[in-house]
């Protein structure tokens, strides 16, 4: 007979959730996640790894002077398929975008034409301005199989830790 008091959930997962909550993270269980309009996490399918609604909201909050097209271009750049790249190259590229921002082309109202701006993805100066979400039992369906890590930590809709 199994004793729930000595389960992985009780010994590891629940204390970790409590720790993240104490650090100010919002926590949610995706065990009974719904999809589509009004979904639990804003995902359409289990194949989505990025929480697009949260990402767009954060990008809009950090870059209020940039047009919606710039936000859309940044989302496309952050979520584009990097599977053909080496893991190291993909990680370096994403790290640079998170740290330095994403170069986007915007109209130059003063001089005409276009200019390049850096769209911020993370508020490094005031970390509390970021959106921190810890999701337990987050299922992801890929081409070959479905996995469900115990915990996935999202910062501004992007999965940063598993």
Describe this structure in words.
The protein has 162 residues and is an alpha+beta fold. It has helices at 8-22, 52-62, 68-79, 87-100, and strands spanning 26-29, 102-107, 114-119, 132-136, 140-141, 146-147, 151-155, 158-161. Strands 1-4-7-8 form a four-stranded mixed β-sheet.
Topology:
Layout: H1 8-22, E1 26-29, H2 52-62, H3 68-79, H4 87-100, E2 102-107, E3 114-119, E4 132-136, E5 140-141, E6 146-147, E7 151-155, E8 158-161
Parallel strand pairs: 1-4
Antiparallel strand pairs: 2-3, 4-7, 5-6, 7-8
Helix pairs in contact: 2-3
The mean pLDDT is 92
Radius of gyration: 18 Å
Distance between the termini: 30 Å
Shape label: elongated
E-strand count:
8
Structure classification: alpha+beta
Key traits:
162 residues, alpha+beta, 4-stranded mixed β-sheet, elongated
Task: Summarize the model shown.
This protein is an alpha+beta fold.
């Amino acid at each position: 007979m199994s004793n729930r008091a000595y389960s992985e959930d009780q010994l590891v997962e629940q204390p970790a959730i409590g720790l993240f909550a104490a650090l100010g993270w919002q926590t949610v269980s995706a065990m009974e996640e719904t999809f589509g309009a009004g979904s639990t996490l804003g995902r359409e399918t289990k194949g989505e790894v990025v929480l697009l609604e949260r990402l767009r909201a954060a990008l809009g909050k950090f870059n209020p002077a940039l047009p919606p097209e710039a936000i859309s271009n940044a989302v496309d750049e952050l979520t584009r398929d990097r599977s053909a790249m080496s893991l190291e190259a993909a990680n370096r590229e994403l790290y640079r975008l998170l740290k330095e921002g994403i170069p986007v082309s915007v109209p130059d109202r003063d001089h005409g034409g276009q200019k390049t701006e850096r769209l911020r993805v993370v508020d490094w100066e005031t970390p509390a301005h970021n959106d921190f979400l810890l999701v337990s039992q987050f299922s992801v369906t890929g081409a070959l199989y479905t996995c469900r890590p115990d915990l996935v930590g999202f910062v501004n809709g992007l999965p940063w830790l598993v």
